[in-house]
Specification:
The chain has four helices and nine strands, in the order ββββαβββααββα. By secondary structure, it is α+β, with helices and mostly antiparallel strands.
């Protein structure tokens, strides 16, 4: 598990430096090593301290700890995923706020009728029309509603969430 450590920091002294996380204080390192960490952590996660259970990493000015024995590439991938999720959450919150400010009574799409949903589900065999998955299924408009597509069995297909996201609002 990778966690951000907001209490971690470097404490610098005369010609040497020490990594501190909360009440834990680690061995002193030279000023040269400290400068190398600060330089290298801009491009890739750099391990800065280790104890019997955890490894602390620095990446782009932030500190993280993990106890799974991750590599620098794995740490970078997990941080990237976390930052993307956070950005999407913020973007959704902004969109909701703007929609509320424009008025909650704005245009809404009519739900797909239940009989049409059943017919499409039976026709597609309860599986994604693209990859065959039977998980996270969603009804997708082949011609998007925004482009004039109707909620008819001929214009609907079952897609799993990953395939539906990959398609976006494009024509299939």
């Amino acid at each position: 598990m990778l966690r951000e450590d907001v209490n971690a920091r470097f404490e610098t002294g005369f010609l040497r430096c020490r990594f501190v996380s909360g009440r834990r204080e680690f061995s002193f390192i030279s000023g040269l090593t400290h400068r190398a960490i600060l330089r290298d952590q801009e491009a890739a996660p750099v391990p800065v301290a280790e104890d019997e259970r955890r490894t602390w990493w620095m990446f782009r000015g932030r500190f993280f700890w993990e106890d799974d024995g991750l590599t620098a590439d794995e740490v970078r991938a997990l941080i990237h995923e976390r930052d993307r999720r956070r950005r999407r959450r913020i973007d959704r919150a902004i969109d909701l706020m703007l929609a509320d400010e424009e008025g909650a009574g704005g245009p809404r799409r009519e739900p797909i009728p239940e009989d049409v949903r059943r017919e499409v589900f039976r026709r597609d065999g309860g599986r994604c029309a693209e990859c065959g998955s039977d998980e996270l299924l969603q009804f997708d408009h082949v011609i998007p509603v925004a482009l004039g597509g109707a909620s008819t069995p001929e214009n609907l297909q079952l897609l799993c969430a990953p395939c539906n996201r990959a398609k976006g609002a494009a024509l299939a």
